[in-house]
Specification:
This protein is mainly α. It is built from 14 helices and no strands. The chain crosses the membrane at residues 47-67, 79-100, 106-125, 137-162, 182-207, 228-252, 264-285, 297-314.
């Protein structure tokens, strides 16, 4: 997966409406000429979107793996916590109330909206005698997402200007953002990654059943809390810099599970380069399939990933007796 990521980065820096030779890319990175237009394209356009793709893809893969572990559902998605819905309504509020019109200006609004929505879902889903139950958490997430989506649709149907700005951000992509956006959410994402990796052992025990994990002396509530916080930081940060990229957090860990099994330490470790590779390669594909324009990476992920996931779900499993 690391080798695949290296190939993806090389393609991302060289492929596009303006093809650039590998030697020129190398010069742009290590011996740049400010007057060379190819160097300018590499440094100002392709490097930022490649870095954003790596960070967002890895974050979503980690968040998806943790969420699938917490819910004991291999088809769970980080959006289960209402992250995408919360980010969307916050971005709309920024557009309508504050007049923000550039994707680079949505970063903190998207992150804050995602975090608030996820915290609301976690707080409600954790109440009661069966608080934190995966089914209860999923139902709470669906209810909160439905409510936020209704508010989003109300704003979009009454504010035409908001629709014009929002529709570009809502499909998810790596363009029109800079490295400054990554810097803003870098620390929260790094903290989320550390928490996600630290929860690996707990997720392995929860996979045996919460009663079994508790019987072995494990603090299930602590693992659940750490996992939810990690998911909020990772998915919130990724959504803030790349928009609501759907499907990637579900597809990557599910596909890896079919290959390497259910060891969460391995799933999380391999998920980092795998998720980054998927999003960066999706961005590369989007640049070349509809010239002279581009298709946003979020659309490519959904379009290509859907049949792959369907094949994984429907494939026949061999049973060894």
């Amino acid at each position: 997966m690391v080798a695949l990521l290296v190939v993806a980065v090389a393609l991302s820096l060289g492929v596009g409406a303006r093809p650039i030779a590998p030697g020129v890319v190398w010069e742009a990175l290590f011996a740049q000429d400010p007057t060379n237009p190819d160097h300018i394209v590499v440094l100002t356009q392709r490097v930022p979107r490649t870095v954003i793709g790596i960070v967002a893809g890895a974050s979503l893969a980690l968040a998806g793996t943790v969420m699938q572990g917490l819910t004991r559902n291999p088809l769970a998605d980080p959006g289960l916590l209402g992250v995408n819905a919360g980010a969307s309504v916050a971005v709309l509020a920024a557009i309508v109330l504050l007049g923000v019109s550039k994707p680079s200006g949505f970063v903190w609004f998207a992150f804050a909206g995602a975090a608030v929505a996820a915290l609301v879902v976690a707080a409600i889903g954790s109440r009661g005698p069966d608080g934190g139950n995966p089914a209860k958490l999923a139902l709470t997430g669906a209810a909160v997402t439905a409510g936020i989506t209704a508010v989003t649709m109300l704003i979009l149907t009454t504010q035409i200007v908001a629709l014009d700005v929002y529709r570009y951000w809502s499909v998810g992509g790596l363009t029109a953002r800079g490295l400054d956006s990554v810097a803003l959410v870098g620390i929260p994402i790094l903290l989320g990654a550390v928490l996600a990796i630290a929860s690996a052992r707990g997720l392995d025990l929860i996979a045996l059943g919460e009663d079994t994990a508790s019987g072995l002396g494990h603090n299930v509530a602590r693992t659940r809390t750490v996992g939810i916080v990690a998911t909020i930081l990772l998915c919130g940060g990724a959504t803030a810099i790349a928009g609501p990229i759907v499907f990637l957090g579900l597809l990557v860990p599910h596909a890896l599970r079919a290959v390497i099994g259910d060891d969460y330490a391995r799933l999380l470790a391999i998920g980092v380069p795998a998720g980054a590779s998927v999003l960066v390669l999706s961005d590369v594909v989007g640049r070349v399939i509809a010239p002279p324009g581009e298709v946003q990476a979020g659309i490519v992920v959904a379009f290509v990933g859907a049949p792959v996931l369907i094949a994984l779900v429907l494939r026949r499993r061999r049973v060894v007796l």
